[in-house]
Amino acid sequence: MNSTTIPDAPLIIYDGACGFCNRTVRLIAALDKANRFYFAPNSGETASRLLRRFNIEGEQHHTLIFIYGNAYFTRSRAVIEICNHIRHLKWLGILLRCLPFSLREWGYRQIALRRYWFGRTDSCPLPPSRLRNHFLP
After folding, report:
1. DSSP bridge partners of 71
2. SS3 sequence, 66-80?
3. How far is residue 43's CA from residue 113's CA, in Å, rounded to a whole number?
4. Hey, which residues does 14 pair with through a beta bridge?
């Protein structure tokens, strides 16, 4: 896959400078035994193109975005959809879906506001070699 190709697979747009986000992405990659997920930092060219395509350009620096096919999900709904695509986390997706939307969103915002407590980087760390082609520019 070249750098201009966007895969037709589950794709997560995340804050590449956020330590919490980077660790979460690595956890998802480790749990994704089928290597279906792709990842793109919110400051990269892949994220820019997708955000323009879906007309969601204003949120990329504050929100986790999950894209699959012709649909996208943000914030707590993105978390639920990601969990639904990982066998070992389906239970968490079901549990989160049972919570009222306003409570889920409040919880998401609380974590998002404090995400830099877990560290901040100037650039995205290199992914493991087996997953390098799953991290898009």
Report:
1. 68
2. EEECCEEEEHHHHHH
3. 18
4. 41
Q: Which of 54, 55, 52, 61 is nearest to 13 (CA)?
A: 61
| pLDDT tens column, 75-133 | 999 999 999 999 889 999 999 999 999 999 999 999 888 777 766 666 555 666 666 77
Give the whole-angstrom CA distance, residue 67 versus residue 125: 22
DSSP alpha helices (H): ranges in the chain? 19-31, 45-54, 75-84, 90-98, 101-113
CA-to-CA separations, 34 to 21, 70, 113, in angstroms, rounded: 21, 21, 32
Two structure tokens written together for 13: 């747009």
Which two three-digit tokens encode residue 62? 């504050």
Is the Cβ–Cβ distance between 88 and 42 less than 8 Å? no
DSSP strand pairing (65-68 vs 11-14): antiparallel
For the chain, helix (H) and strand (E) counts, in that order, are 5, 4
- Asked if 131 and 31 count as a contact pair (C-beta separation under 8 A), the reply is no
CA 135 to chain CA centroid, Å, is: 11
